[in-house]
């Protein structure tokens, strides 16, 4: 739908508009509105170049695309009935899935990770997280250690839990695929790295691998997030999970600006399950249960939470934001109860969308 700035376009403006849409094989239908005439595009109006050309005309206010810019992630796409699983564990579809574990695996202290892994299982967690490679603001900070991959895989052996770790480049991706990591995490810093998103989509095609895509701290529009997921799914593997984790802070107090509320907007637009990350959002262990329960109230399909048996002796984010196993166990119980309570509201929302 094309919305002009003024009540009417001049015949010359209308002719120019028609010639542009004609180049893309699209006819224009003029609709006389109450306050101004608007133009419906008949045909596939999703061509990004077409929209940019029209938006560039000085007499046009905006273009509203009726169809979503994404084809695969849309709720009415043929993928809508796809069930996302991580090594057999279903995510979404009524279940509340919890991924938990260390921000960063300490290669000097594998036992701490094995103890946390057992505690995550005991607390009711479904997937074990452990950072092997870490995106750090300073190049002088600990960047992770590939030896930690062996620790992660050993913890999977011991607990039987599927494992999640972040990959930041193609070389790490290959190591993680070789180790058969169940869930690949794309971090907030790489959620806009389209080259990496495409490469991951290409490499996981035909594999059982699932991708957990964090929302970039710099993303604004909800569709920008969904389109990043579309890049991965376009490679051919639709095992994708969307993870709000807070955006750049606009106030003091929290590490990021909490964004668990966008869960309902995602649920209206896409079929993909939403696992909220309260840890990076609020950035402090004592705040995490509040954000986690809020996420459940907003209809999340689960959580990814940093947890540690001994946070004070952890590394990376663990000393400040990892919850202890007892807090994790209560948080999981409470979040599952809220999730159950909210099911009716979520179903109603989705039915209206
Ligand atoms: C993490 O999960 O430890 C992490 C670095 O997350 P994010 O990419 O959301 O900052
Ligand atoms: Mn972290």
Description of the molecule:
The chain is an alpha/beta fold and 353 residues long. It folds into two domains: 2-63, Alpha-Beta Plaits (2-Layer Sandwich), CATH 3.30.70; 84-352, Aldolase class I (TIM Barrel), CATH 3.20.20. The chain has twelve helices and 14 strands. It has helices spanning 11-23, 48-55, 110-122, 148-159, 170-178, 194-204, 222-233, 263-269, 278-282, 288-297, 318-321, 325-352; strands at residues 2-4, 27-32, 37-42, 60-63, 84-86, 89-91, 97-102, 127-130, 163-166, 183-186, 210-214, 240-243, 275-276, 302-306. Strands 12-11-10-9-8-7-14-13 form an eight-stranded parallel sheet. It has a two-stranded antiparallel ribbon with strand order 1-4. The chain has a two-stranded antiparallel sheet with strand order 2-3. Strand 5 (84-86) and strand 6 form a beta hairpin. Manganese (II) ion (MN) binds next to loops.
């Amino acid at each position: 739908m094309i919305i002009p700035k003024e009540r009417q376009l001049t015949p010359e403006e209308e002719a120019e508009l028609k010639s542009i849409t004609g180049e893309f094989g699209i006819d224009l239908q003029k609709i006389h509105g109450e306050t101004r005439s608007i133009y419906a595009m008949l045909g596939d109006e999703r061509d990004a170049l077409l929209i940019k050309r029209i938006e560039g005309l000085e007499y046009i206010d905006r273009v509203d695309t009726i169809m979503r810019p994404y084809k695969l992630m849309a709720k009415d796409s043929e993928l809508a009935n796809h069930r996302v699983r991580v090594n057999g564990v279903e995510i979404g579809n009524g279940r509340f899935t919890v991924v938990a574990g260390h921000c960063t695996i300490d290669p000097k202290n594998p036992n701490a990770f094995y103890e946390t892994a057992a505690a995550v299982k005991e607390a009711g967690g479904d997937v074990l997280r452990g950072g092997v490679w870490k995106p750090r603001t300073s190049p002088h900070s600990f960047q992770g250690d590939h030896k930690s991959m062996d620790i992660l895989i050993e913890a999977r052996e011991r607990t039987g839990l599927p494992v999640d770790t972040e990959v930041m480049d193609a070389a790490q991706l290959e190591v993680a695929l070789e180790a058969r990591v169940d869930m690949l995490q794309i971090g907030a810093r790489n959620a806009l790295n389209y080259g990496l998103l495409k490469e991951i989509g290409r490499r996981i095609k035909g594999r059982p691998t699932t991708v957990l895509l964090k929302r970039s701290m710099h993303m604004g529009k909800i569709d920008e997030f969904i389109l990043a997921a579309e890049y991965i799914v376009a490679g051919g593997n639709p095992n994708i999970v969307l993870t709000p984790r807070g955006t750049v802070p606009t106030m003091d107090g929290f590490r990021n600006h909490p964004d668990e509320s966008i869960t309902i907007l995602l649920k209206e637009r896409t079929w993909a399950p939403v696992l909220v990350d309260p840890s990076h959002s609020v950035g402090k262990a004592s705040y995490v249960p509040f954000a986690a329960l809020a996420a459940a109230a907003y209809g999340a399909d689960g959580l990814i939470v940093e947890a540690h048996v001994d946070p004070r002796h952890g590394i990376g984010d663990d000393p400040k934001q990892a919850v202890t196993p007892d807090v994790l166990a209560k948080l999981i119980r409470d979040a599952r109860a809220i999730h159950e309570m909210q099911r009716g509201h979520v179903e109603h929302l989705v039915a209206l969308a």
